[in-house]
Hints:
Layout: E1 2-4, E2 13-20, E3 24-27, E4 37-40, E5 49-57, E6 65-67
Antiparallel strand pairs: 1-6, 2-5, 3-4
Amino acid sequence: xxxxxxxGNTEKFIGHAQEKGDVLIYKNDLNxxxxxxxxxxxxxxxxxxxxxxxxxxFFCNSANIVKI
Length: 68
Ligand SMILES: [Zn+2]
């Protein structure tokens, strides 16, 4: 969990997340004109990664965030 050093908030923060891992990409025959390719994610649990970064406090916009 995280904590804002300025207002003490531990509930809500603004940040961004990125998932990355192996994917399957295949031709989408059913709906080719609208969406030529379909994606299937997460073909391997082992190679799946998840990055989470907290940028600032939701309430006071402070970037003084610590991991607790
Ligand atoms: Zn705050």
